[in-house]
Amino acid sequence: MSAISALDYTILALLLAAALASVLLGLKRRAALIAEGRALPGAAAPAGWRERFNLRAFASRGLLTSRLKKRPVAGLAHGVMFGGAVVAILGHAGFALSFVGVPVYEGRFGFLVMELGRELAGILMFAGVAFFVVRRLMCIERLNTGGFRRGFVAMELLFLVTILAGFAAEAFRLANPQYASRGEFLGLVLASGLREIGVGPHAVATHLAWWLHALLGVAFIGLIAHTPLSHMLLAPANAALARRRSGITLAPIDFDADPPEGEEISFGAAKLADLDRKKLLDFSACLWCGRCQEVCPAAQTGKALSPKKVMTTCATYLENGRLDDVALIDEIGLQAVFDCTTCAACVEECPASNSPAETILEFRRHFVMDRSEMPDTLALANRNLESRGHPFVGTAANPDDWRKGLDVPFFEAGKTEYLLWIGCSVAFEPRAQEVARAMVRILETAGVSYGILAESRCTGDPAKMAGDEMQFVEIAQANIEDFRERKIQKVITMCAHCFNSFDRYYPELGADWQTIPHSVLIDQLITDGRLKVVRNDAEKITFHDPCYLGRHNDILSEPRRALGAVAQLIEMPRNRKDSFCCGAGGGNYWGGKGGTARINDVRMQEAVDTGAAKVATSCSFCLLMLTSSASKHGEERRVFDVAELVAESLPARAETV
């Protein structure tokens, strides 16, 4: 007869209900804190929430931890824990069916699931948890730098002891010959060991071991929502609310809206209550794992910014209920906030689907629009953008210099198919002007109907990413109105930042045209046979992915195909969505000082180490940053835009533009 009675299971069921109530209370407390944030756009209506729910991210990132696939050992450990937990939960649910007469321990199901499956599940969970305990005790730098979250090790040890207690209870049960088992192989070995040392069937010992395992398990469940292991519930929820579009998306600001009653007009964020609820959920779900720190170009070159510290500081303020404490923004610091290159590496890397960069940019907005504070060099560029229409202070270039000697058509409404958007960097930086010249040659050769605007323009991206949303909106609205008057429907960009602004932010202000990056169009022209190129099999080129094309907009294959058509492509170790930033983004083209190294120097060294003779990119700012660093590796020109390399490979060059 079983040593465990129906009364035992009844008491356990009541304790388990209390543990689940504890979980709900813990989640309710966190939800109350998160609710103090600003509502998400459209979240007030049920349809808004349904539209925002990202089922794919919930399943892949939240449940299957897909973002850990780049870290195979940690990914495997999470995988075996998750798989083991699923089988264990199903096994315990199946056991409950035995109370209503279902013979769950009989036949193939009993052997594969209730015995062998649960046994393997316990072993896998133990192995996975043991790995994480050992790793935390090894004091890995990323786990400690920027804040160490206490409570993980204690909960992981409790889980390990719970699993061990489960095997002990199993061993005592199987020590009694009346309990036959085929699949509980570890339990059978342990039971045999008990018999060898003289511990035979003993109902009291079996009863105590069972209760020890049960109480430890109940305690573990009850503590989940009150400890760092709450991420098991919060991270999947956070993934479900993740944006479907890659990269960073800053919420629009309604400058005409009246502030809440009793509050003054304020832009951006100085305190937690200024942030939306998704960002507060980010802080609750944050693992303090430091993976954002490992990929952040600012942090990895010794600058003031630590994305992990931003998250841990905000998480601590949230946990302590300091939602209205304006000391937060100054604790994080102006320099750290402006060190962010907006590369979105932290967003791409985070296993909990957090977006540290978006939080940082909200602080940046407040520094600029509420406190009129920003680094001096960036402030100078921003003022130049406001007064002269471009941020390039002290440039000697004339905006028409790039087309000298060329017969470049102007856009004509109803006649021209594409607007070739020149942008500010191409117009005012001599090195970038070569990209426009190459692009004109490509378009002429392919017979594309295109034209330019008579005057140089900026999309306003430097203002937006510097935190000056007002100036961005003003520039964008003027461009949108002008494009409408000219009936522009298709735009070619040569700058990744221009593309991102046109494609991501202009539509919410009323824009309705199609924007295509020049590398994507070049690939299309080659694929369609409209552009014939000559491939040099002996030449080796490595490609630097612009953050604003790769991570922000998933444009990865097109520039590679275009380059592969003209030469042999060699990848850098960090490529595609794992690419390392050039350092220009977020206004750091005009700043980015300090630290132990320049970001562009680090990236250029990676390119040189591939052994490729040429470095290619498809963004004018990346071109400028890497060209600046290339001079340290010889006087020969080494960095090129995709358009330049494709234009060089066109036959009969002398007969064309």
TrEMBL record:
<dbReference type="InterPro" id="IPR017900">
    <property type="entry name" value="4Fe4S_Fe_S_CS"/>
</dbReference>
<dbReference type="InterPro" id="IPR051460">
    <property type="entry name" value="HdrC_iron-sulfur_subunit"/>
</dbReference>
<keyword id="KW-0411">Iron-sulfur</keyword>
<keyword id="KW-0004">4Fe-4S</keyword>
<keyword id="KW-0812">Transmembrane</keyword>
<dbReference type="InterPro" id="IPR036197">
    <property type="entry name" value="NarG-like_sf"/>
</dbReference>
<dbReference type="Pfam" id="PF13237">
    <property type="entry name" value="Fer4_10"/>
</dbReference>
<keyword id="KW-0408">Iron</keyword>
<dbReference type="InterPro" id="IPR004017">
    <property type="entry name" value="Cys_rich_dom"/>
</dbReference>
<keyword id="KW-0560">Oxidoreductase</keyword>
<feature type="transmembrane region" description="Helical">
    <location>
        <begin position="6"/>
        <end position="27"/>
    </location>
</feature>
<dbReference type="InterPro" id="IPR017896">
    <property type="entry name" value="4Fe4S_Fe-S-bd"/>
</dbReference>
<keyword id="KW-0479">Metal-binding</keyword>
<feature type="domain" description="4Fe-4S ferredoxin-type">
    <location>
        <begin position="277"/>
        <end position="308"/>
    </location>
</feature>
<protein>
    <submittedName>
        <fullName>4Fe-4S dicluster domain-containing protein</fullName>
    </submittedName>
</protein>
<dbReference type="Pfam" id="PF02754">
    <property type="entry name" value="CCG"/>
</dbReference>
<keyword id="KW-0472">Membrane</keyword>
<dbReference type="InterPro" id="IPR009051">
    <property type="entry name" value="Helical_ferredxn"/>
</dbReference>
<feature type="transmembrane region" description="Helical">
    <location>
        <begin position="151"/>
        <end position="169"/>
    </location>
</feature>
<keyword id="KW-1133">Transmembrane helix</keyword>
<feature type="transmembrane region" description="Helical">
    <location>
        <begin position="76"/>
        <end position="100"/>
    </location>
</feature>
<feature type="transmembrane region" description="Helical">
    <location>
        <begin position="120"/>
        <end position="139"/>
    </location>
</feature>
